[in-house]
Each structure stands twice: as C-alpha cells, then as structure tokens.
Amino acid sequence: MNSAKATAVPLRSGLWAAIAVVIVGLNLRPAIVAVAPVFDVLTVRLELSSVLAGALVTLPVLCFGVLGPLAPALARRIGFERSLAVVLLAVILGSALRLIPTVAGLFSGTLLIGAGIAIGNILLPGLIKRDFSHRLGLMSGLFSACLTAGATLAAGLTLPIAEAAGWEWNEALAAWGLFAIFGLACWVPFLAQSKVSGSPAASGKIRLSRDPVAWLVTAFFGLQSLNFYSTTAWLPTILIDQGHDPVFAGLMLSLVNLVSIAPSLAIPLFLDKLRSQVGFAIATCIVYFAAFAGMLFLPEPTVLWMVLLGAAQGAGLGVGLTFIVLRTRDAQQATVLSGMAQSWGYLFAAAGPLVLGALRDWTGGWQVPLLVLFIALVPMLAAGALAGRPGFVGVDEAKLETEPA
C-alpha cells in the first residue's frame, strides 16, 4: 500500500522536481544557438550555398512552428514525463548525428534537435501549470530564464571550449548532447510517474481557434518572437554596417542575451501576484520602443540601446510565457494554448529574418527594416494590453459545462 502511494507521488512534490524541470529547460536552446559561433567555419568547410546557410538558420524555428502541434497528442498518449524524455533523447541523437561532418549529418541532426525542442517548448508550460500551480510565477520565470540563459551559454561558451579542447566545428556542436544526457539522467526518476501523474487526456477536446483571448496571447507571443529572432539574426550585421568592429558587434549580441536573463526571471514573479498584467505588457513595449528609437535616430550610445533591447526581450519572453499559464484554468488548457501560441508565433517569427534581409537588399540599408520592427511594436502593445486583462481562455465552454441540465 505504502509503496503504491509512493509511486503515485506527483512531480510537484519536491525541490528536486523543480531542479529537474530547470535542467530540462536549460536544454531547449543551446544545441540550436551553438551553430552561430561556428557558423562561418562550417559554411566554409561544408561549402554551403547562401540558400543552404539560410535554411540551416531557419530550420529550427520552422520546426517550432510546424511540429509543435504534435506535443499535446504525444503527451496524451504517453504522458508529460515520458514525452519530455523523448525531447531529451531527440537532442542527444541529433547532436550525435552532427558528429558526421557532412551536410546530411548537419541538417538531419538539426532537424531532429528542432523537432524535439519544439515539443519541449510546448509541454513545459503545461507541466508547470499542472505541478506547480502554487508557484506559477516562480516556475514560469525560471522557465523563461532557462531559455535565455541556455542561449547565452551556448553563444558564449561553444567557441572557447572548442578551441581549448582542440575540437572541430562538428565536435563543438555535438558536445551539447552531453548536457542533454545529464538532463535525461536527472529526469529518469520521474518516468515511472508518467501514467499516474496525469497527462492532458482531455486536451484533444479543447478548441481555442475561435477564442479571442487565445489569439491575443498568440499575437503577443508571435510578435515578441519576431523581434527576438530578427534581431538575433541581423544585429551583428547591423552594427558592422554602422561602422563597428565585428568583435564589438558580437559582444553586443552577447550583451543583449545576458541582460535578458534577469527580467525573464523576475517579471513572471510579479505577474503571478497581479490580477491584471496590462501594466507590465505596456511597460515592456515602451522599453522596446525606446531601444529601437535609439537605434534608428541616435545610434550612439550603442551599449545603452543594447541594454534596453535585452531588457525588453527578456521581459517580453517572460510576459508571453506567463500569459500561457495565467490565462488558462488547468494543464489541459495550458498545453493547448502553449501549442497554439508557440506554433503560430514561431511560424510568424521564422519569416522575420528573411523579410528583414530582403528589405535591406531592396533599400540598401537598415533604416527601413528597423522601422518595420518599430512599427510592429504597436500591435504587440495592443495585444499585450488586451491579453493582460483578467480572464481565461475557453470561458464560454466553461460556462456551458457548469450550467445545470
């Protein structure tokens, strides 16, 4: 009897569970971002055309959008815990494929990693809603901070570690699979709970495609993702074209990522305690406006605009992910809304770097592309202000379920 109860202890039962979730979250960016530091080397070694090079950068974000909807179905079938183990296995196997120093090895590994992370992106907010309902702000903040911290670690450590160890580009990329192995080892103790801790069995019946709150959350998440991936792709080039040294441009991108960690962690802690999140959503957009206005009209001091951009991006990610758990009533709704917001959001964001690059080629400069990102903050502010109001998705369905027959 006692042993049976022990196996049914939910994931939320201790600090170790929270640490395990954090470690899984830290694995959802490094294997992708690690490509950037070795990008110049691998494109030369593999003789990648500009088309293939662009596809390599865009492929993971497309995976997030296209393959994300598979996450709720996978969780319904095998549970949250086993699904997240599959995520880590995909990162491990994809990293192993990257050891093969060929175009096929690189792209197949990237595809497998992108597919796994697409599922992990969506399932972790649902897991947090289910198992940490009493600590939504803390765990949502940790999750968003893990995404930014993981990206920062990969951007800053991949090349130095590879050079110190004497690794080639493929070995440097594959090394992040070791971190995923560590994550899987931490996750193994929870696999036995997958059936009894509850998977989102009812999520297949939840439909949010006509829900206005769901679309507002999706719009905010998509627009902040558009901004992040567009600036991540082009910020160093923008700064170099403004006359800065390439080393300085790379450092500024690292600064943006580093600054974003603190607000991505702190903002959700406050959001969880507030009935309305409108003020924080508006404040985030105002900081964005200030950063882009400076980049457009007064490029110096560059460091100031990078700090503001990093603060806005971290806050935007924190607000977007926290909306998912605060605007839903349970893990089932959170999983479906997470899938909707992230799938559509990442598909929208994937077009950003391509559109900005085309605008730059068409106009011969970065003023118009930056102006487009500046203007895109207007609908982002509107979506955030409306999504931040108290309420839940699926209110009409909830009313129907509670009405007497």
Short description:
Helix content is 78%, strand content 0%.
Explained architecture:
With 405 residues, the protein is mainly α. It folds into 2 domains: 9-201, Growth Hormone, Chain: A (Up-down Bundle), CATH 1.20.1250; 208-393, MFS general substrate transporter like domains (Growth Hormone, Chain: A, Up-down Bundle). The protein is built from 17 helices and no strands. The chain has helices spanning 2-7, 15-26, 30-33, 39-45, 50-67, 70-97, 103-131, 136-165, 169-174, 176-187, 212-241, 246-271, 278-297, 302-326, 331-363, 367-387, 395-402. Helix 7 (103-131) crosses helix 14 (302-326) and helix 13 (278-297) runs antiparallel to helix 14. The radius of gyration is 21 Å and the shape is globular.
Give the secondary structure arrangement, pairings included.
Elements: H1 2-7, H2 15-26, H3 30-33, H4 39-45, H5 50-67, H6 70-97, H7 103-131, H8 136-165, H9 169-174, H10 176-187, H11 212-241, H12 246-271, H13 278-297, H14 302-326, H15 331-363, H16 367-387, H17 395-402
Helix pairs in contact: 2-8, 2-10, 5-7, 5-15, 6-7, 6-10, 7-8, 7-14, 7-15, 8-12, 8-14, 11-12, 11-14, 11-15, 11-16, 12-14, 13-14, 13-16, 15-16
